[in-house]
Amino acid sequence: MGPSPRLGRQAGSRRRASSYVREKADAEGSELTRVKRALAERGLAPRRRFGQNFLIREELAERIVEHCRLRDDDVAVEIGPGAGALTGRIAARVRRVIAVEKDAGLAAFLREELGELGRVEIVEGDFLEFDLAAAAAAHGVEKVTVVGNIPYNITTPVIERIFEQKHAVRGAVLLVQKEYAERLAAAAGSPEYGSLTLFARYHALLEPLMTVRAPAFWPRPGVDSMLVRFLLRDHPPVEAPSEALLFRIIRGAFHMRRKQLMNTLEESLDLGKETIERLCRHAGVDPKRRGETLTLEEFAKLARAAAAYV
């Protein structure tokens, strides 16, 4: 007596699933092998000092570039192209891609690998010193699009650099540590909420796009990543006398996270208790609250009130 139709279907499903898993594993293995071999032939390997983790999943590279919403007249700036998993795919969708690579060996490797693609320019240098406005002007566009798989150890400086030059940036799509992305999107009162959350919110609208698991990279990092879109704001979402004063108050509040505003404002603004109480009444904010419970608008109210005293 043969197997029941139900058992037959299950066995067939298992065979198909096993075949699919094997094919995926073979594809991933071949791409990893290719990258390892190509780098080894040139005496190159991932450098921990530069926070290098190379994307080795081709279908994920394709999805990432699709999420960038690139246009054929775009000039794109890629941060840290590494072994070039995204670079050629970006080039196929834009007028020009400028790939900024700090590692001299990788920059030479990319010139050799991508030299036949006329739309690719490899710049050996540090993105933290790269002039986005100059790049836009050199290529006859008002704004560039920024794309990058960001080294975890310099994520905040990279984002700060983009925000500093936001007048020359149409948008940015960045792969960052998943926990970092959660901090960017955190709600007031949550453990992840902090000055970084408000800094990002002040400068951009954020859209989480997809999670990229750790096995998609070589070497494999200890955490997952998330792809995030930054839509740079032309104008801040709140009114404040100055960005400097606003973030002086915000950073003071989160530097002493568990203390009440009465204490954090005293220290960050160097004002007496009576003045702080008057300032908080003017802003309509209870001085007994902790900074971690305040929204960006409430911090802006405090900054507007503080402007009369500092």
Please describe the topology of this protein.
Layout: H1 5-40, E1 54-55, H2 58-67, E2 75-79, H3 87-91, E3 96-101, H4 104-114, E4 120-124, H5 132-138, E5 144-149, H6 155-164, E6 169-177, H7 178-184, H8 195-203, E7 204-212, E8 217-218, E9 225-232, H9 243-255, H10 261-269, H11 273-283, H12 296-306
Parallel strand pairs: 2-3, 2-5, 3-4, 5-6
Antiparallel strand pairs: 1-8, 6-9, 7-9
How would you describe the overall organization of this protein?
- This protein has helices spanning 5-40, 58-67, 87-91, 104-114, 132-138, 155-164, 178-184, 195-203, 243-255, 261-269, 273-283, 296-306, and strands at 54-55, 75-79, 96-101, 120-124, 144-149, 169-177, 204-212, 217-218, 225-232.
- 36% of the residues are buried.
- By secondary structure, the chain is of the alpha/beta class.
- It folds into three domains: 1-41; 48-232, Rossmann fold (3-Layer(aba) Sandwich), CATH 3.40.50.150; 243-306, Orthogonal Bundle (Helicase, Ruva Protein, domain 3).
- α9 (243-255) crosses α10 (261-269) and α11 (273-283) crosses α12.
- 45% of the residues lie in helices and 17% in strands.
- The strands form two sheets. Strands 4-3-2-5-6-9-7 form a seven-stranded mixed beta sheet, with helices on both faces.
- It has twelve helices and nine strands.
Architecture per CATH nomenclature, i.e. the level-2 architecture of the largest domain: 3-Layer(aba) Sandwich
Order of H and E elements: HEHEHEHEHEHEHHEEEHHHH
- The number of helices is 12
Say how many strands there are. Answer: 9
The level of helicity is 40-55%
At the fourth level of CATH, the homologous superfamily of the largest domain is Vaccinia Virus protein VP39
